[in-house]
Amino acid sequence: MELFVFAVAGLMVLGGAVGVVVRTHPVHAALSLVLTLFGIAVLFVAQDAQFLAAVEVIVYAGAIVVLFLFVIMLLGIDQAENLHVEPFKIQRPVAIAVGAGLVSLLGLAVIASREHPVPVVTPSQAVTDAALDPHDGNIRALARDVFSDHVLAFELTSVLLVIAVVGTVILARKPRKGESYVTGSAQ
Amino acid sequence: MLAVDTLLDHIKLWSTETLIILIKVVVVFIVGLVGTMLMVWFERKVIAFMQNRIGPNKAGPKGLLQTLADGTKLFFKEDLIPDKSDRFVFKLAPYLAFVPAFLVWSVVPLGGNFADGRDGTVKILGKATKLQLADPPVGVLLLLALSSIAVYGIMLAGWSSGSKYPLLGSVRASAQMISYEAALGLSLATVILVTGTLSTNGIVTSQFSLSRWSIIATGVVPFIVFLIAATAELNRPPFDLVEAEQELVGGFNTEYSSIRFALFFLAEFMNTITMSGVIVTLFFGGPQPLKIGGNSNILSFLGPFSGTVWLLLKVLVFLYIYVWFRATLPRLRYDQLMNLGWKLMIPLALGWFMLLAFFRVGQDEGWNRWVVGIAGLAVMGVCAGLLQLASKVSARNREREGAMF
């Protein structure tokens, strides 16, 4: 049963990921991304991480990809791209290099894990608590972890988001009469 | 593994457990479909009554079979696919609208025995089970996830039609649904704060008396926000800019015909029923009986069905309210819709959530609850004033600079 779920979800994830890269139409690529996200959510549920699965669907599939589609529709860039035009000359060689690096790192990790099959990791207090009470979807344990041990990182993330929002507002705003954003001073 | 139903813990193919689960799935599916059919009839009849008309009265007794006749007619109509459409997405979109509408049913507790703090388990064929398809520990989040997935159906339908008006309709729809999802989630968070659980079954179990019903325990405001946000999420009047016939021909579904149109229609009415069910579950105790002044369950003569009948009665009230909205309220303008959502509903829901959290802290620390209440309301008032001031300043700036676009 577990193997079956893993196989189906894995196929969803991989199929979606290939679709994102291969489909030339932006909307189809975005929909393939949704397929991948759903596959990941299924994998989370199979690992008893229901909260992560639900949040994955709500935030990524329900908000972020919807915004992608929204932008695609509003800007009307929903035509197939010509892949032979390169905006940055260097991007293809760099992409190949980074991809090769990632593949070799993953390969090394697989080989290394064969030599040390059981890694020793000390679980945090929250993880131990979650293991004791597996039927509430780990929500309490997760909340305790995020809001006590890692509260600084959590707050910094929200600061980052606020900065992003403020930046977007400034970029989207038209400059007022008599001021220019290029030099930052009045013309 | 999936932790959604105790029956599934030791599942074998071809056992009583499998049979019970299959029966539950089939019953919920059929009752959902028939309920939708009756809902269409109910809406047409009630609106006719409110507008001094007769409404459907030819097919079947009191016109009950009118929806069936309309549905059959739709099935036999020609299925058009526009030349400029994106064929795959065009065919996919109706199912994306329809499936989430159905899936919401799976986490709504549909009855059962909740008396004296029991958790609603009943015995079917000698096995203990809950009268709901699934009870995942994150049930409420599943509701939110499904309502955010429902955007896709409408959005892609409008876009894939390859036509201007449906595209406008779907852009409106996605903006509206994303905006009101925040208010929906924030008002729902107060219920989670009060009941202390994310499971829908747990939420119903904790509302065992009238004063524990979430509408009273959270102080009515979250319920009003939730009701308005849910109406916007459903694209029902007065928030039906998505299918404003006067402006957009027919809205996102203009190019659809035959069975694909029927699926959108079905999804819309199904969503109305499921959303009423969700409101009842979250704020009105779901299948819990209404007990005033210490009397017992007045429907107890119905035995094991009393919970389901209570749920049905409460859901009917909300269905009537939705029809009432439609017959009474004129459609909002786009800027009014956005102002209501962003400048009133979200701050109000957030403020109320903080107020309830403040009360909770006060309870734990043993502070005087009157002081806590007054201080909380004062802070909320100051925040509201600041927000008002900020929006006034920005409105004045806009005015001075003239139209931006």
Radius of gyration of chain B: 23 Å
CATH architecture of the domain at 1-79 in chain A: Up-down Bundle
Structural class of chain A: mainly alpha
Spatial sequence of strands, sheet with the most strands of chain B: 1-2
Strand runs of chain A, count: 0
Oligomer: heterodimer
Helix content of chain A: over 70%
| N-end to C-end Cα span of chain B | 54 Å
- Our estimate of the beta-strand percent of chain A is under 5%
| CATH T-level topology of the domain at 1-79 in chain A | Four Helix Bundle (Hemerythrin (Met), subunit A)
- For this structure, what is the CATH homologous superfamily of the domain at 1-79 in chain A? NADH-ubiquinone/plastoquinone oxidoreductase chain 6, subunit NuoJ
Unreliable stretches covering 5 or more consecutive residues of chain A: 183-187
Q: In this structure, how is the largest beta sheet of chain A organized?
A: none
Query: Radius of gyration of chain A in whole Å, from Cα?
Result: 22 Å
Mean of the pLDDT scores of chain A? 80
First and last CA, distance of chain A: 69 Å
Helix tally of chain B equals 13
Topology pattern of chain B, helix = H, strand = E? HHHEEHHHHHHHHHH
